[in-house]
Structure formats: structure tokens, C-alpha cells
Design goal:
- The protein is an alpha/beta fold and 253 residues long.
- It has 2 domains: 82 residues, Nucleotidyltransferase, domain 5 (2-Layer Sandwich), CATH 3.30.420; 146 residues, 2-Layer Sandwich (Nucleotidyltransferase, domain 5).
- Helices cover 34% and strands 26% of the residues.
- It is built from 7 helices and 12 strands.
- The protein has a 7-stranded mixed β-sheet, with helices on both faces.
- Strand 4, helix 2 and strand 5 form a beta-alpha-beta unit.
- The longest helix has 25 residues.
- The radius of gyration is 19 Å and the shape is globular.
- The structure holds adenosine-5'-diphosphate, the ligand CC(C)(COP(=O)(O)O)[C@@H](O)C(=O)NCCC(=O)O and potassium ion.
- The ligand CC(C)(COP(=O)(O)O)[C@@H](O)C(=O)NCCC(=O)O binds next to helix 3 and strand 9.
Length: 253
């Protein structure tokens, strides 16, 4: 069985996994600045027969560099339909490929309706019906992006670690609490909107800030590691075509 390399190139980090058949052999994450070292270490270990699948929502030059060093990668792009999920976006291909992969994973991991929450550079909150219909979703600044934007836009606010305390009684805790509640508030509000038609929905929460955000949710929720990579694994399992040789380029599996 040929190994499969899965890549989730987000705006802050590259998340990756190495599969042997269906078995999740290894996985990890590295910041953009550390990608060259990661490539060096990975390149020598991958047999030529490795199948490579990815999603990229970061700069194309990073994706091209990964391809140049590792060989062609099948980049998932959102479509009207894939692996049981149908895309409700006005222009389906405009939906972030990472969100598309996370929706595919959610549909395969969970039986009922789901609110698919990816807490990264941005936070996305996507409404998925039990029958696989993606109805639409929110994009808001992620937790760190929110905190950093306050520092950039103000003269006196620090980028300091605060604690979530209600009521917050100092600047640091006020920022930490405000940004966290903005995330939680958006998720819970959208859950109430979808609950009108999708009864018993569960929020599936993933991404770098999943734990801290999920810890404050009062709606039914669970965290899932690497939802985007899990969606890519579903797509890879459904794809029987071999990875193309080094001189061809493909955009979708
Ligand atoms: N070790 C880490 N390095 C960078 N960010 C981290 C780390 N652990 C948690 N985070 C948080 O996770 C966010 C990035 O999450 P991630 O899911 O990797 O995002 P993206 O898919 O946008 O690259 C950061 O903005 C930060 O708030
Ligand atoms: C919303 C996103 C920026 C999230 O990126 P991330 O936080 O995972 O780095 C990404 O999914 C994206 O660029 N989407 C395209 C626009 C859309 O989904 O409507
Ligand atoms: K995200």
C-alpha cells in the first residue's frame, strides 16, 4: 500500500499527516517559517510512490515550493458536490478549500447536522445539514488575529496574555475576555439560527484555538483534531487515480 501525505496549508501553519493505507501513521504542524526545514526532513523519507493531497488557503508561492520539493500535489478545490457534501455557496469554487475539507470530514464523522467550526487565523462557522447540504457560514478574525488587530489599531492596548474573567477588571483580562466572547458569541448565535431547522446539531470544533474556544461553549460541542486533514483523507480514500508524475500539474483530486 502506497503511503499518503496530507497537507493543510493554512495562513499561520502547515498541518500534515502521513497515512499508511487508512492508518494515521504520523502527524504534526509547523509555522510557515519552519516549512523549509520540515521539507528537508520529509523529502528524504517519502518514497516516490507517495500519494500527495493538499488544501491551500495561504500564499500560492508556499504551495508551489512544497510541490517543487516534494512532487506534484493534488490540491482540493471546493466544487458543487464531493463525497456526499453539496455546496450552498453562490459560487461553490470560492469557498475556502480548508472549509470544504472540514465539511467533508464532518459529514463522514458525524451522523446528524453539524456546526463545523475551524478556529485558526480566521474562525469559520459552517452550517452542515444531516443530509450533507452545506448551507453557508461565517468568517471572522481568529482569536490571535483579533487580539493583534487591537494592538495595531490602538495607541495603548498591549499584546499581553490575559485571562478570561467575567467581569474583567484590568486591560489584559478585558482583551482576552472580549476576544474570546466574540468567538463564542458568534458560534452560539449562528447555532441558534441553524437550530431552527437543524434540530440536535452538534458543533465540531477544530484548529489551533479549538480547545480554548470549545471550553467556553454552552451548546452541544466536541473538539476534533485535524478536521481538515480528516476531510482530505476521505477525499484521498475515494480517489483511485495515481498521483501524477513530476512533470504534470493537477488542481483537484
Ligand atoms: N504552536 C502554535 N503555533 C501557532 N499558533 C498556535 C499554536 N498553538 C495554538 N495556536 C493558535 O492557533 C492559531 C492557528 O491555528 P491553525 O489551525 O494552525 O491556523 P491556520 O489553519 O489558519 O494556519 C493561531 O492563530 C494561534 O492562535
Ligand atoms: C476563511 C479562510 C481565510 C480561513 O483560513 P485559515 O484561518 O484556515 O487560515 C480561508 O478558508 C479562505 O481564504 N477562504 C476563502 C473565502 C471563503 O471561504 O469564502
Ligand atoms: K479557519
Amino acid at each position: 500500500m502506497n503511503p499518503t501525505l496530507l497537507l493543510d496549508l493554512g495562513n499561520t501553519r502547515l498541518k500534515w499527516a502521513l497515512l499508511e493505507g487508512e492508518h494515521w501513521r504520523e502527524s504534526g504542524a509547523c509555522r510557515h517559517v519552519d516549512i523549509p526545514q520540515w521539507i528537508e526532513a520529509m523529502r528524504v523519507r517519502l518514497p516516490a510512490s507517495t500519494r500527495r493531497f493538499g488544501v491551500n488557503v495561504a500564499h500560492d508561492r508556499l504551495a508551489l515550493e512544497l510541490e517543487r520539493q516534494l512532487g506534484p500535489i493534488r490540491w482540493l478545490v471546493a466544487e458543487e458536490q464531493c463525497c456526499g457534501v453539496t455546496n450552498g455557496y453562490d459560487e461553490p469554487e470560492r469557498l475556502g478549500a480548508d472549509r470544504w475539507a472540514a465539511l467533508i470530514a464532518a459529514h463522514h464523522l458525524h451522523d446528524g447536522a453539524a456546526l463545523v467550526v475551524c478556529c485558526g487565523t480566521a474562525t469559520t462557522v459552517d452550517w452542515l445539514e444531516a443530509d450533507g447540504r452545506f448551507r453557508g457560514g461565517l468568517i471572522l478574525p481568529g482569536l490571535t488575529t483579533m487580539r493583534e488587530s487591537l494592538v495595531r489599531a490602538t495607541a495603548k492596548l498591549p499584546l499581553a496574555a490575559g485571562e478570561v474573567r467575567l467581569p474583567p477588571t484590568n486591560t489584559r483580562d478585558a482583551i482576552a475576555s472580549g476576544c474570546l466572547l466574540a468567538q463564542v458569541g458568534a458560534i452560539e448565535h449562528y447555532y441558534r439560527v441553524m437550530e431552527g431547522t437543524a434540530c440536535g446539531a452538534v458543533a465540531l470544533v477544530s484548529g489551533g484555538d479549538a480547545e480554548i474556544i470549545a471550553a467556553h461553549l454552552v451548546i452541544p460541542a466536541r473538539t476534533v483534531d485535524n478536521l481538515v486533514l480528516r476531510g482530505l483523507a476521505v477525499v484521498a480514500a475515494a480517489s483511485t487515480r495515481p498521483t501524477p508524475s513530476h512533470d504534470t500539474r493537477e488542481t483537484a483530486p
